[in-house]
Amino acid sequence: MKIGLPKALLYYYYSPIWKAFFDALKIDYIESNDTNAKTLILGKEKSIDEACLALKIYLGHIEEIKDKCDLILVPRIYSLKKTEQVCTNFNCLYDLVRNTFPNIKILNYNIDIKHHHNEKSAFLKIGKDLGFSLIEASRAYNLAKEVENNHYKNEEKKAKIALKSKNTKILLIGHPYILKDNLIGKSVTDYLEKNNITIIYSYQVPRELIEYNCNKISSKIHFTMNKEGLAAFNYFKNKIDGTILLTAFPCGPDSLSNEMLLRKRKNHPLLLLTFEDLTNNTAVITRLESFLDMLKGGIHL
After folding, report:
1. CATH numeric code, 2-146
2. What integer best gives the mean pLDDT of the chain?
């Protein structure tokens, strides 16, 4: 038995707990390769034109990995809090993949706090579907949860170290599947690092402080996963020199949260980069050059 993990979308939120869970159960898994131009082409062929760039990339990863494993892990996540919701792509991900790839076998779980389907019960379902007892699956989940918590603590430590740097410090705000993607985020991080910029990432904000710091921007955020970016801005803004927002077109939740940050930034230097296609990053580099020049010159637009 080998489980396929597409390296896109939810992978960048949940891979630490997924991999630790399968390791504890001694289940083999395989990850798709980093996103490349071929991945995007394959994804476009499987997508409707209106799909966001991140979803097109995800479907490309499914296409690349589907013949290399027995099952592909495709969760359905609707709500992580009773009064909130996640992106509609995550709501329908299971159905979308099942209909787009009717011949593949899917390992699925459902998280919907609004209707009393929590994370632990979701992982217990995975264990049951794979033939493990409730006790075995529960033990694996507890171990995996500890690994996940340690992962985020390590990210927080990295941010603390980065903030001590004497270089120009820039906060990158975006979903992890944007910031960590080999085609989207890497073009930005590579350029910044070549110019001796110290990078802090929005996913490095302390987990326990997300709600508090997000409420300083707005107390009425409906989309749970956008809270991280808003919280990171409020938490880091006085410790950095500038902020760059990365988003994939046409993300509805991002368009709302980005507008909030643009209105709340005051004199804080902030650049919004929206990625619709990745055939040429010249425009991105040009805008990054201009932004860094503005920072050096003390210009805040």
Report:
1. 3.40.50
2. 91
